[in-house]
């Protein structure tokens, strides 16, 4: 695919998975808009993209705010005249027991992860509908099918992103717009570092995670970016409403374990 002239917006692109996605687009030849609430890191990533690939525009954006989301699209259109791809990657998360959460905890996650995805999509779609083309890729999570305790707002938000993806895919297909999701598993970002740092035994924690990932390793942000690039390209021209898991097989393994355990309790498991 010829990416010259292609304009891609990536939210939450100042670090982690978002930065990896931005690099993939820029390396392919697309014009990339880095959107993030962190101005310092966002400008650093953008400067690096400009130095390496000769392209990159930073727009400070709080995706939980209507004015910022609309301003992001306006700035992109003013600079490049079109929006070909929107990647809704911005997100926040924390682990906290439900009985210790308050309304502010819930709102912080849902406002960014779910409402932010809606707001950015809503204003990007105006431009896409006018051109009758475009692709939206929402970064969901393995939490859409397999979750953990003390992650209720995040699981609820990502589950909502998955279903919103499907609904918008149907609604905007007549306009030539495709809407898909990508659900990453364990990725080599600051969150993975935090998990290891918080563990009493870092090596034991790493082994626990690897035991639950059939491919036996952590993925890089660029591996997520490669899947996003595919979904934005003409190579996926007949793909819409999908949720692609980049998790090394983790959710399949966990789901199968749960089913096997259920059968075992019923005396239905295969016997040696």
Q: How does this model look, in words?
A:
It is a single chain. The chain is an alpha/beta fold and 272 residues long. The chain has helices spanning 16-28, 39-53, 66-80, 103-131, 152-172, 190-198, 202-211, 221-232, 250-265; strands at residues 7-11, 31-36, 57-60, 85-88, 134-139, 177-184, 243-246. The chain has a seven-stranded parallel sheet, with helices on both faces. Helix 1 (16-28) packs across helix 8 (221-232), helix 4 (103-131) runs parallel beside helix 5 (152-172) and helix 6 packs across helix 7 (202-211). It is globular and about 50 Å long. Residues 260-272 have low confidence and may be disordered.
List the helices and strands and how they pair.
Elements: E1 7-11, H1 16-28, E2 31-36, H2 39-53, E3 57-60, H3 66-80, E4 85-88, H4 103-131, E5 134-139, H5 152-172, E6 177-184, H6 190-198, H7 202-211, H8 221-232, E7 243-246, H9 250-265
Parallel strand pairs: 1-2, 1-4, 2-3, 4-5, 5-6, 6-7
Helix pairs in contact: 1-8, 3-4, 4-5, 6-7
CATH architecture: 3-Layer(aba) Sandwich
Distance between the termini: 53 Å
The helix content is 40-55%
Q: CATH superfamily name?
A: NAD(P)-binding Rossmann-like Domain
Shape, per Cα inertia axes: globular
Share in β-strands: 5-15%
Task: Count the beta strands.
Answer: 7
Secondary-structure element order, N to C: EHEHEHEHEHEHHHEH
| CATH secondary-structure class | Alpha Beta
What's the domain count? 1
Uncertain segments: 260-272
The count of helical stretches stands at 9
Over the alpha carbons, how many angstroms does the gyration radius reach?
19 Å
Q: Predict the CATH topology.
A: Rossmann fold
Q: In order across it, which strands form the biggest sheet?
A: 3-2-1-4-5-6-7
Q: State the secondary-structure class.
A: alpha/beta
Largest sheet, if any? 7 strands, parallel
The chain-level mean pLDDT equals 91
């Amino acid at each position: 695919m010829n990416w010259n002239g292609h304009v891609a917006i990536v939210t939450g692109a100042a670090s982690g998975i978002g930065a990896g996605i931005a690099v993939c687009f820029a390396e392919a030849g697309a014009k990339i808009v880095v959107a993030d609430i962190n101005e310092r890191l966002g400008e650093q990533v953008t400067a690096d993209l400009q130095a390496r690939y000769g392209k990159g525009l930073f727009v400070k954006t709080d995706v939980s705010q209507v004015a910022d989301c609309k301003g992001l699209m306006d700035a992109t259109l003013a600079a490049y005249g079109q929006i070909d791809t929107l990647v809704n990657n911005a997100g926040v998360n924390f682990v906290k027991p439900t009985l210790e959460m308050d309304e502010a905890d819930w709102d912080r996650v849902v406002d960014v992860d779910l409402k932010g995805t809606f707001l950015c999509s809503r204003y990007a779609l105006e431009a896409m509908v006018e051109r009758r083309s475009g692709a939206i890729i929402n970064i969901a999570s393995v939490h859409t099918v397999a979750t953990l305790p003390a992650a209720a707002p995040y699981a609820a938000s990502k589950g909502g992103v998955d279903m919103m993806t499907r609904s918008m895919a149907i609604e905007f297909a007549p306009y030539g717009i495709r809407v898909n999701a990508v659900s990453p598993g364990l990725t080599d970002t600051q969150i993975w570092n935090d998990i290891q740092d918080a563990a009493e035994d870092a090596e034991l924690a790493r082994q626990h995670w690897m035991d639950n990932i059939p491919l036996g390793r952590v993925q890089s942000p660029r591996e997520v970016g490669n899947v996003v690039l595919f979904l934005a390209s003409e190579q996926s021209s007949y793909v819409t409403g999908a949720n692609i898991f980049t998790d090394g097989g983790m959710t399949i393994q966990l789901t199968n374990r749960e089913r096997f355990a259920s059968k075992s309790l019923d005396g239905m498991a295969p016997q040696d």
